[in-house]
Amino acid sequence: MPRIEELPLWLRALLVAYPWRRIAPVPVAALQRPLSDCRVALVTTAGLVPPGAEPFDAHARGGDVSYRVIEAGVSVPRLADHHRSNSFDHSGIAKDRNLALPLDRLRELAAERVIGDVAPRHLSFMGSITAPGRLVGDSAPKAAALLQEDGVDVALLVPV
Amino acid sequence: MLPEVTAKVGPPRALAVPWPLGFPLGAPDDPALQRRVLVAMLELLPRVDVPVLEDFSP
Could you tell me if A150 and A41 are in contact, meaning their C-beta atoms sit under 8 angstroms apart? Predict the structure, then answer.
């Protein structure tokens, strides 16, 4: 399990000093139906971009708070890694994008009726957002509304 | 993910995995392992005693 003390000094200093935001009380939504009837969406912070979409802005001040919509029918290997950070090893995701956006795995779980079905749209953010105000106030609510519009019951966040 | 950071932020349900940053679902081209991680995440959904932070055992 990765621990903060194992990271490079510059990253450790950033993480220790960063004013992490916490929502209180902790929001929680109970399952309204069996998992086998649930529509499931994926949300990644790996900065993956579908073919033809604009890359994330690696130089955006405070981080790029936008998101990309990934259609359920996309070919996962065609997603491009545009994450600007060198705080993590990108080599695993370079070999297999499912490591960050396990869409093929989700399709398999739907075929096995573990979940009800795969949401028509999934979301990709790029992490490294040091100034999250616009994320919290604007892009994240819009992203959530998109998933609600699609009737998503469960959103799984896969952070990198 | 970093469990120390996750504990500070307190999302409702989180799974702590034993791999380095960049490998959230374990390993590339290992569908069986990736599936086990996803299923472990899904198994947290009935929990409402939030925040929940469980360790994944490979």
Answer: yes
The pTM is what?
0.93
Rg over alpha carbons for chain B, rounded to the nearest Å, is 12
Q: Where are the domains of chain A?
A: 35-158
Rounded CA gap, A77 and A28, in Å? Answer: 33
Instruction: Provide the strand spans (E) within chain B.
Output: 13-16, 52-55
Residue boundaries of the structural domains of chain B = 3-55
| Residue A1: pLDDT over 70 | no
Distance CA B18, CA A111 (A): 28
CB contact under 8 A, B51 and A26: yes
Q: Is A151 left (phi over 0), alpha (psi -120 to 50) or beta?
A: left
Interface predicted TM-score (ipTM) of this complex, two decimals: 0.94
By C-alpha distance, which of A32, A111, A108 is closest to A76? A108
CA distance A99 to A80: 13
Taking CB atoms and an 8 Å cutoff, what residues of chain A touch B42? 35, 40, 109, 114-115, 154, 156
A99 near B CB under 8 A: yes
